[in-house]
């Protein structure tokens, strides 16, 4: 077709699908790689920095890449329902793709720790949402048991098709740049996406679509950084609720990606995350959610390690509109409420 047909059709030869697989797609993928010169200027050394803005996927996050695969394969296998645990984005994507494919979505979330936009999406797309007293790690434990005990397909990133779909983001980065970057900076929560990117770069490298593979630089919120500390975190805390995870399901594969690529896991504080979040929006016009800004925060924190002339890609995993509460809280000084409709008064506020 002349239009972008979605990532399964585009990358079919690299994906475990057959002519019989019923493709459930919202034409996801093909997200832009956007230069961010103000971030590059902070680093200097003729470094080039791009963001892979995966918040422009159909439900506003990279999860759509995994969900088109997971739901297509679930449908192929005859499943009637899917279930996931989620900090929000997985639930939105699962709900949208399951409903589109004629499957029933169920999601289990940590009560009080899912951003409002994501919760709204899951409900609007038709999921039954069960909010539990407990964090994401507990919710994941429960859905794993449920998928074992009941006829329902698990669509968390433990589902191998999720990783397969998500690896296409690395293909797109290489297709756009003409080669792999030197560094790939990425937020890490349940550790599926870093695993997927690494697999994508390795497969493209093997096919000689790129001449090298990047260093995988994973960043975790300082209060939820099990891969930095090397052990699980019992009570993970961060305002970046998307990555508020203490016991990542894909930790073994993520550690392999870090080690094979000569990469690192490092923490970024909530303040550093918010500084990058503000900078991306106010200097580059790119609005991502807080968890996504961890990649840029991490790059800036480790700028001394970036080699001169390097090409760096930071993954922006989710759209800023997902979390309107934080967006509003962070910018109260710009919001002038209850003002009389008076020209002089308004001009005064505008400092004219
Ligand atoms: N960024 C965003 C916006 C996310 O929603 C997530 C994970 C990550 C980064 C981390 O990716 O888990 O593959 O390491 N969100 C999951 C969810 C946990 O339920 O939506 P990861």
Structural write-up:
This protein has 352 residues and is an alpha/beta fold. Helix content is 42%, strand content 14%. The strands form two sheets. The chain has a six-stranded mixed β-sheet, sandwiched between helices. It is globular and about 65 Å long. The model has no long low-confidence stretch (mean pLDDT 98). Bound molecules: ligand F0G.
What integer is the average pLDDT?
98
Ligand inventory reads: ligand F0G
Strand segment count: 10
Oligomer: single chain
Strand content: 5-15%
Q: Main β-sheet: number of strands, strand sense, barrel status?
A: 6 strands, mixed
SSE pattern = HEHEHEHEHEHEHHEHEHHEHHEHH
Spatial sequence of strands, sheet with the most strands:
1-2-10-7-8-9
From the N-terminal CA to the C-terminal CA, the straight-line distance is 53 Å
Shape annotation: globular
Radius of gyration, whole Å: 20 Å
Q: Could you estimate the helical fraction of the residues in percent?
A: 40-55%
Runs with pLDDT <50, length 5+?
none
Supply the number of helical segments: 15
- Structural classification: alpha/beta
